[in-house]
Amino acid sequence: MAAKKGDRSKATPAVPRPSSSVILISPKNEVLLLHRVKTSTSFASAHVFPGGNLSVQDGECPAVDDPKRHEDAPWYRNAAVRELFEESGILLARDQNTGAMLAVPEAEREKGRRAIHQHEMTFVEWLKKQNAAAVPDIEPLIPFTRWITPTNVPKRYSTQMYLYFLPLPVETDPSVLKEIPEREEIQVPTSDGGIEVTETMFLPAAEWLRRAKSGEIIMFPPQFLLLHLVSQFLDKEPLGTASLEELRSRRAELVEFAHSGTPPWTEKCISPKMLKMSSDGRAVLALDHPGPELEGTDRAGEPDRVVYVQFKQGAARKLDVRWKKDVFAEQEKSSL
């Protein structure tokens, strides 16, 4: 029997579209977020990591019914680098012969973005025009969870998240430094002219979290949780006066953390599920389920943490990350 119109419980869930996002860490260990336009078809008005859907130019993704469709692979990495450039103007590419990072003047990068947005050329074609040996710099990308949209949402995505660390100041190639004037060390992120992004900015993860908690910005559970984890390592005191060695040490601790856990954060696949409603009316989301597409596989999510969130008019508010054991402890205490 066909499902009745509007009966989502019986309707076939939408197929999750493959996508990528990159958590870009600046030389000062700050994180890049983009403010999406109000008219965006997904995460409207929210602050998000740069990223987007895979394109044919990124490589061929496995078939819809293949579990490998939801694994880290070159096509996801290519999409992360391409989308970062299209949305923020920051280019992560290197000469595959010399290994040197590409230094492209900002005016040329902006010209390239316009041409790509107007479908005059692809990112790969533009890259080869800059240097015939240029390739996206995908090797340093570190997988940092995959998120599959729950089945009750009309638009679903299978999003591979990555960490990418821009070089610390002394590690930056002098030729690249010449083309990146702000702070003498990083490319200046810019919006895409209002196509999908209105603003781009590097800030400490802790500051992004503060703004989300205060209601100054809209942020959704995946970004909030990952910033929460990143902040624990990159935002230790002192913040503004940390030495180069301290900045490097914090990065190393974050990378070590990414490879820890059961499963490790590099392998976790999370499809949030409602666990309960809290006393203050927020949804408590369990993170241990990998989604229906990966049922019967050995993929798993995060068993120990939950996210509190209030969904209101399509936006996420009042977010918090807590230990699952504490949630049940509170529940037991309140029932006594």
Automatic annotation (TrEMBL):
Pfam families per the record?
A: NUDIX (PF00293)
Q: Which residues form a coiled coil?
A: none
Region of interest called Disordered, as start-end residue ranges on this chain: 1-20
Write down the required cofactor(s): Mg(2+); Mn(2+)
GO MF term (any one): hydrolase activity, acting on acid anhydrides, in phosphorus-containing anhydrides
Gene3D superfamilies annotated for this entry? Nucleoside Triphosphate Pyrophosphohydrolase
Q: Does the keyword RNA-binding apply?
A: no
User: Which residue intervals are annotated with compositional bias (Basic and acidic residues) in the record?
Assistant: 1-10
- The organism's place on the tree of life at top rank: Eukaryota
Does the record bear Magnesium in its keywords? yes
Outline the extent of the Nudix hydrolase domain. 15-225
Enumerate the SUPFAM superfamilies for this protein. Answer: Nudix
Q: Which UniProt keywords apply?
A: Hydrolase, Magnesium, Manganese, Metal-binding
What GO terms fall under cellular component here?
mitochondrion
Q: What is this protein called?
A: Nudix hydrolase domain-containing protein
Q: Name its species.
A: Aspergillus hiratsukae
